[in-house]
Amino acid sequence: MREFIRHFIAALVIIGAITAAHAINIIGLPQQPVVATGSSAGTATFNADAGVVTTTALTLTTGTSATLTINNNQISSSSVLSVEVYNGTNTAGVPFIASITPSPGSVAIVITNAAATGVAALNGTLKVMFVIFN
Length: 134
Description:
Strand content: 35-45%
Helix content: 10-25%
């Protein structure tokens, strides 16, 4: 039943009925910080069917991207994932999910700054909520 509720809440997020922050509070998704550093958004190991991962601090300028890799034993190449990004400590730019590529045991999530030219770069961490549908 808990899995059904998580998937239902994720569907509400996808259609815009509630925000990811509300979903986290409603179903108490586990959170795990990413430990990688550098220009990438980081890598985390998170073996759950849903959760929230905090990226490394990002400074993406307009049109640039970083990849967050989540290692997860519940993901296969045929998994369907619902992913949403929102600000952690970041206060600038327009982060969005450019692509989601599942493979056996992990998913690569590309985050792009979609802000208009001349708008400030991302300046902090992002929270990435994911739900796996198998």
